[in-house]
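Students often ask why inverse folding is considered easier than folding. One informal answer: many sequences map to the same fold, so there is more than one right answer. In these notes we will look at a single instance of the problem. The structure comes first.
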């Protein structure tokens, strides 16, 4: 669970989507905030495997994804499925705001 309360997350969502018209623009606003504020690279564990998150991207199917690597292997993982390390990287609150928005 997020360290931020519902009201704080809603305030972040409002900040990211203030000029947005429709769900696509809201998604783009949230993606922009994650891209600008999430400190990368950072390490985390996915299905028991240590990976490095290098950046985020907006996929063609309308999801925000983390671009991860382990050695020469690269993979995109939906940011909502990505476990955040403890302590979480700077800017992780934007991922939590996206999670709240996505419902």
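Output (designed amino acids):
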């Amino acid at each position: 669970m997020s360290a931020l309360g519902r009201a704080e997350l809603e305030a972040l969502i409002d900040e990211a989507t203030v000029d947005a018209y429709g769900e696509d623009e809201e998604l783009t606003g949230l993606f922009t905030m994650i891209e600008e504020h999430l400190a990368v690279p950072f390490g985390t564990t996915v299905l028991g495997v240590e990976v490095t998150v290098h950046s985020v991207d907006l996929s063609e199917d309308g999801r925000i994804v983390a671009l991860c690597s382990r050695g020469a292997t690269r993979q995109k993982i939906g940011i909502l499925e990505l476990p955040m390390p403890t302590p979480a990287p700077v800017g992780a609150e934007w991922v939590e705001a996206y999670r709240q928005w996505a419902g």
